[in-house]
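Friendly challenge for the regulars: who can give me the structure tokens for this chain first? No prize, just bragging rights.
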Amino acid sequence: MKQYIAETAKIGQATKIGFNCVIMENVSIGNDCLIGNNVVIYEGSKIGDQVRIDDNTIIGKKPLSSPRSIFKVDPNLKPAEIGNMCQIGANVVIYVQAMIGNNNLIADLATIRENVTIGDLNI
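First reply, four minutes later:
Bragging rights claimed.
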């Protein structure tokens, strides 16, 4: 099982990354984080200190768009941001331009869509 970590990604001290993870360009991961197995973190995403991300989670996903759809994806969406001391459960999907504050618990199987902001101290 391999992992891919882009050369431009910044990984903090004492951060542990599980098997088969993909960390793309310009990602920033803080200190003392634990990234589970099979996690994908898309380009530019920012993750604070002491964050736990469980297995099979996707951070910074871009929404899909169909050529026939009347809804178009904004190409200028900002990367996802996760504050300090958060717990992100297994099989969670957090889209681009989602902002998650400090000390939050995002339960297993949750989906956080683009343009959603979650403040501090939430479950």
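The chain has no helices and 17 strands. The first strand starts at residue 4 and ends at 5. Your move, everyone else.
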